[in-house]
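Assemble and predict.
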Amino acid sequence: MKLYRINAVFLRHLILVPRDLNRFVELIYWPFMDIVLWGFMSFWVQKESLTAELPLILLTALVLWSLVYRANMEISYSLLDELWSHNMVNLFSSPLTFSEWVVAVLMLGIVKVLFVFFYSIAAIYFLYSLNVLSLGLSLIPYALLLIISGWSIGFIVTAVICFFGQKLQTLVWVTAYLFVPFSAVYYPVSSLPVWAQKISYCLPMTYIFEGMRELVATGIVNRYYLLWATILNIVFCVVSLLFFKYIFEKTKIYGLARLERFE
Amino acid sequence: MNAPILVSIKNLVKIFYPGWITASRPFVAVDGISFDIHEGEVLGFLGPNGAGKTTTIQMLLGVMKPTSGSINYFGKDLSTHRSEILQHVTFASAYARLPSRLTIAENLDIYGRLYGLSQRDRKARIEELLTLFGLWHKRNAMTGPLSAGQMTRVMLAKAFMPQPKVVLLDEPTASLDPDVAAEVRNFIWQQQHEHKTAFLFTSHNMAEVEEVCDRVLILKRGSIVANSTPAEIAARISKTRLHLLMCEQKDQARIYLQTQGYIFKEGPHNFFEIEIDDHDVAQLLVDLAREGIDYSQISIDKPRLEDYFLQIAKNN
């Protein structure tokens, strides 16, 4: 065993840490986000006298959050898959339009999101004998709004990757998670510090998860929350889609072929 | 050429300005080029590395925006009729790839769908093209593990899935065995003559370009430096070289060539190399016979496109 060879391999990987966003994210982002998320959650659990509904609240939140995450992922991942396959130029030198591509990936997203949604509900039922569907049809508007929230995040992330290329591909996995602490997914907005609450109330997901907790606790759909979630969703989704379209056209200045290279 | 113009490029410019993506200085990749491609024409598009060929092709495919200038297909502007135009324009490159976890047939089927082919047409076209390119037995193989030559043939099949009017081919025979490359050239010839398909053809194989292309554009640092037939371009820098092995009248031959003003070199064993215009060869041979100057061997080296290309590359 030679120390200089060990050193060579050690250095070969160490040099890449500050240069490679993927490695940087693993060291900084994920540990920090876990601390933030589970920290807020711990304080909420400690402070509140916990109800019998807590497992249902948490697991419903988990299922609903998976809608945001999956809806976001499907858009960005579809683009990345074309880049990894070196298929971007093939695809966009055919008659296919930007709008057609977007609709296709949204349709794919809906199919996969619905699969994950019902699969998760079934898993929760069989593992924990908790029925998320007991919330009834009221769950449908919440689910639809969360899918749209996921699309908004997906459009932004995909636009950024479209402009900067594959070197920022890790954003596909990390961006949605950035919204978890502020969207009150696993704990109410009131558990957050005041500055974080201000951010929280700007996000459509917050109103949905607050509404979901109220639905589980009281069985009542809060229309105020639904209204705000709808308004914010429309604004975010339209703006993010326009941003994506703008960036897609902008990236043609440098050429779509550039995106197929990892540089 | 009297055939209708299918592609018309006017003053096409591409400048990469400094930004987040590019280098610190503006770079002129394509510098105001103009050319047409006629129906049924194979236009060679040549130039050293970095001359602007790939950038031009990307602009012609609509996947890169020109800085200025216009690209018209079938009399319509690509920037405003993109989808309609690309229904009839396809491309294949030796360096392009397709999704690796789809089979060859699945990939071609997807592209058939993108061009709006019916299920029956897709099936028939896939069988026809894969048989032609010798890949029918591989139709259910994933594209990922294919060799470069097989992948190139799949890309060619993809390009011909719809019956295109214009095909942009970026080094289509680069990784093919000579026999397959010859089949591809035959296929291009067939498409050109039977369907009047127009081709823009890039290759580093000058012999192939001379064989396949009706006309050649040579690009150097983003500008067109030659636009003519391969033979005419080659003749610009070198004349035909006529090699004669004289019988006995070596001195007589030398005097005759000198007096007639020919440029020639003498080699060992009565060997003469004469630089001459292609169309003067026959007359010189008649004149030598009239002068009673006999030769025992003759060979004619015509000017080659490669000579011109090498000179361009050397000066690039």
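The two ends of chain A are 35 Å apart (CA to CA).
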